Amino acid sequence: MNRTDGGHPTDEVLLAVAHGEHAGAAEAEAHLASCAICAGRLAALANDDHEVAALLGAIDHPVPSVAFEPVRRARALRRGLLTTAATAGLAVAAAALVPSSPLHQLIVGRPTPASSADTAAVPPTVAAGATPAQPIPLASGIAVPPSPGELLVVFGHDPDSGVIEVGRATTGDIAFRSRGGRTGYQVETDRIVIDNQAPAETYYIDVPPGSHRLLVESGDRVLLRWPDDSARRAAPGGTALARVPLRRAADHGP
After folding, report:
1. Which residues make beta-bridge pairs with 182?
2. Which of 109, 127, 152 is where one domain is finished?
3. Residue 251 has what pLDDT?
């Protein structure tokens, strides 16, 4: 009789006892009478054998009949082959689910194709960083000739954020532009109205060389007198001639 290293019957012998096969059954049955371990093994093997038989019985069904017309015969034959392949696949899967089956032990005892070494070779997914914010483009504006007197610049809506930057114009005109928001301009005689209903971050006023006078107001606030405030509003270290914050704060009053 086949025995393990510990002197117990092998699984094959116990399965032969469970199936009623007589080769070596008498000796195995004598051993089972005095070995509780092997009696438990026999019960587990018999239960697994019963489960496999039940699974195979559940998927067992007759192959559909095949007609003899050429086209229908080819289609039915193909369906029959697919059914047979599916049945075989399910039977293998059912056997693999039983822990004590040789197929299950073969699968568990061998590494799967996606081994730990293969997995380690795949670089981890790196979360993409946030897309850097694009710089806000400089909006197109207007250019007007200098006024013989003082040019009045009025904000249509009293701003509480953003800045005015006064720069040097490259032409003989006074240029108005903005960055961010939506800004419109209404040109009148000696007067410019800035429509800042959608506030901008920066309002640019570029003045040509000379003693051109500007007065920038918003509501009851005088924001800038040019060139009178050029020294007080100077912006050292930058390209702007002057810089005027628009927020309402006591230390930024005119």
Report:
1. 198
2. 109
3. 46
Classified as helix, coil or strand, 240 is coil
Distance of CA 212 to the CA centre of its chain: 56
Report how far residue 27's alpha carbon sits from residue 3's, in angstroms, rounded to the nearest whole number.
11
The whole-angstrom separation of Cα 155 and Cα 248 is 14
Say how far apart CA 249 and CA 251 lie, in whole Å. Answer: 6
Residue 136 has pLDDT above 90, yes or no: no
Q: If residue 95 lies in a helix (H) or strand (E), which one and from where to where?
A: helix 70-97
Place of tokens 């005689």: 189
| Confidence at 101, pLDDT banded by 50, 70, 90 | low
Give the domain extent around 210: 138-252
Q: Which residues pair with 186 in a beta bridge?
A: 193
DSSP state of 178: E
